[in-house]
């Protein structure tokens, strides 16, 4: 196939352009444009508390000034360790307004996981959920963090809900404890922002090629590292997403943020894409079926980005409870394979379209998608986005293209492709070729119409529930368990699609720790979703001639029983 012909263009939905114009403005301008066009429109909805675009822009200016007073300047990294909440959105754009760099972190990380990343990027200021503030403060000495700003989630709740949290009732105490906690040694985010005036209008703003975000990922090697994404990268991907769904109405959509904003997928679809269309972003600190369906009754969604398990749970519960989901005209699934059965269930309940896309942190993150039209093909990850080129090549010789129908490694080039890994030139050179092509590490097949199907992964990354799990992290935690001599972590298929973390371990002959004990010990060092769902005891692990554990062979043996 002559890739210059771009056969996939004939399968684009009507009115989707082949290319998008290149913007010379930053993400800061994206918010300014939305505030100018939709000033009185609700930008955020958090359990019924709403924030207009005008108010959001004002809060961002004040938060930027508060951060400036704390010494944050151009190029400085600022760590965000927050669940989905209005303060997260404000902090994100405030950091960018100063020309500083956002670094997103999972607020459920262990101290060990956070320490590694904080030490790597060297942020001096961290904006943190107050329940996590003591943990971040404990990293002092091992990291460059000097100032921790603690965010109280309950301050963003409606007044009546805040009042209810003060009631001397067990349920109120439990809810309050889940949302907020004392943070001795940290500054109050709310007080710092309230005490600051707006940032001076003439304060230097970032340019399109300035770094906006460091997003940690395992890339193709499994070692967590910061992917450098510029304002141009992220703004281009928001524009590509907007072009991909021509039926969207600027200023009239409601986007549900059930995906975490600290994840590359949730960040782009909710923090930048939604602002680019002047949508109302309904924020959920975590996905909960009951809370989501309650929000549907109050403010129905029109666009819902998520992962397959969320669609399955929502559609099933809505059908059982008689909740109307017909407002959800568009849904885009990513981060893991989308089973055709899930597509059928969702579309039968909503009457809308559910399509699958493909991406990675290094592509901001979306690079391919199924057309939002009857031309979509469930089971594939679709075709390249506007202004995106792809090649299918020999993994051993990436200059040699593979023909349609032949397996090969997927290469991507476009305005959304990152500029490299933070302070890791060798790893950057391994995946980012001199002519701009990104090696994805995924083995795919392309058909004559340009539709791509992922068939295997060169990288040994495990994707569970849409989150990346790096085998080396899991194995390190397993080896710390007394009695565990060696371990290998792999991704195994689970019911409903996707993968679960499974560990094969070699035990000392005198070890008395059982599977439950090993899993419990892992929780000291690993976030919940990284803890192996199953632990299988084996007598040995397959190794290469140089002694490296062959994870692929481990997986094959486990599959064979």
Automatic annotation (TrEMBL):
- Its Gene Ontology molecular function terms? ligase activity, forming carbon-sulfur bonds
Give the highest taxon in the source lineage: Bacteria
Q: Which PROSITE patterns match?
A: AMP_BINDING (PS00455)
Which residues are in the AMP-binding enzyme C-terminal domain? 473-548
Q: Which SUPFAM superfamilies match?
A: Acetyl-CoA synthetase-like
AMP-dependent synthetase/ligase domain sequence ranges = 32-422
CDD domains (alphabetical):
FC-FACS_FadD_like
| Record keywords, A-Z | Ligase
The name this protein goes by in its record: Long-chain fatty acid--CoA ligase
């Amino acid at each position: 196939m002559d890739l210059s012909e771009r056969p996939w263009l004939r399968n684009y939905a009507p009115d989707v352009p082949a290319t998008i114009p290149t913007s010379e403005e930053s993400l800061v301008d994206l918010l300014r444009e939305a505030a100018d066009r939709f000033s009185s429109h609700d930008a955020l909805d958090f359990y019924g508390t709403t924030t207009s675009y005008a108010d959001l822009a004002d809060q961002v200016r004040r938060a930027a000034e508060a951060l400036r007073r704390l010494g944050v300047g151009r190029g400085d990294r600022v760590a965000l360790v927050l669940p989905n909440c209005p303060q997260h959105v404000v902090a994100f754009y405030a950091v960018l307004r100063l020309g500083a760099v956002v670094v997103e972190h999972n607020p459920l990380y262990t101290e060990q996981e956070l320490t590694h990343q904080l030490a790597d990027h060297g942020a001096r200021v961290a904006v943190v959920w107050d329940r996590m503030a003591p943990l971040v403060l404990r990293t002092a000495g091992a990291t460059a963090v000097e100032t921790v700003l603690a965010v109280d989630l309950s301050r963003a709740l409606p007044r009546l809900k805040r009042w209810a949290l003060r009631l001397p009732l067990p349920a109120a105490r439990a809810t309050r404890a889940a949302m907020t906690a004392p943070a001795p040694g940290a500054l109050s985010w709310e007080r710092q922002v309230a005490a600051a005036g707006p940032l001076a209008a003439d304060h230097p703003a970032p340019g399109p090629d300035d770094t906006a975000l460091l997003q940690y990922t395992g890339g193709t090697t499994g070692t967590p590292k910061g992917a450098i994404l510029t304002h141009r990268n992220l703004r281009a991907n928001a524009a590509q997403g907007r072009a991909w769904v021509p039926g969207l109405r600027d200023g009239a959509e409601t986007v549900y943020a059930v995906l975490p904003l600290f994840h590359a997928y949730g960040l782009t679809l909710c923090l930048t894409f939604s602002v680019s269309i002047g949508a109302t972003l309904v924020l959920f600190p975590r996905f909960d079926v009951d809370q989501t369906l309650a929000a549907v009754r109050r403010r129905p969604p029109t666009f819902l980005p998520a992962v397959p398990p969320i669609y399955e749970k929502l559609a099933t519960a809505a059908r059982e409870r008689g909740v109307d989901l017909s407002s959800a005209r568009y849904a885009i699934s990513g981060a893991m394979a989308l089973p055709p059965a899930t597509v059928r269930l969702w579309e039968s309940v909503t009457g809308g379209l559910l399509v699958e896309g493909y991406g990675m942190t290094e592509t901001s993150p979306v690079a391919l998608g199924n057309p939002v039209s009857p031309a979509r093909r469930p089971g594939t990850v679709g075709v390249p986005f506007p202004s995106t080129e792809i090649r299918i090549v020999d993994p051993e010789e990436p200059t040699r293209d593979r023909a349609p129908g032949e397996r090969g490694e997927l290469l991507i080039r476009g305005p959304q492709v990152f500029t490299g890994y933070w302070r890791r030139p060798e790893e950057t050179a391994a995946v980012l070729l001199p002519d701009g092509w990104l090696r994805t590490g995924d083995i795919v097949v392309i058909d004559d119409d340009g539709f791509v199907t992922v068939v295997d992964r060169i990288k040994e990354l495990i994707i569970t529930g849409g989150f990346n799990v790096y085998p080396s992290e899991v194995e390190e935690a397993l080896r710390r368990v007394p009695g565990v001599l060696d371990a290998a972590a792999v991704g195994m298929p689970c019911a409903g699609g996707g993968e679960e973390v499974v560990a094969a371990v070699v035990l000392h002959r005198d070890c008395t720790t059982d599977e439950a004990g090993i899993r419990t010990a892992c929780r000291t060092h690993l976030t919940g979703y990284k803890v192996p769902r199953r632990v299988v005891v084996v007598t040995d692990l397959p190794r290469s001639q140089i002694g490296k554990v062959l994870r692929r062979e481990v997986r094959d043996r486990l599959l064979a029983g």
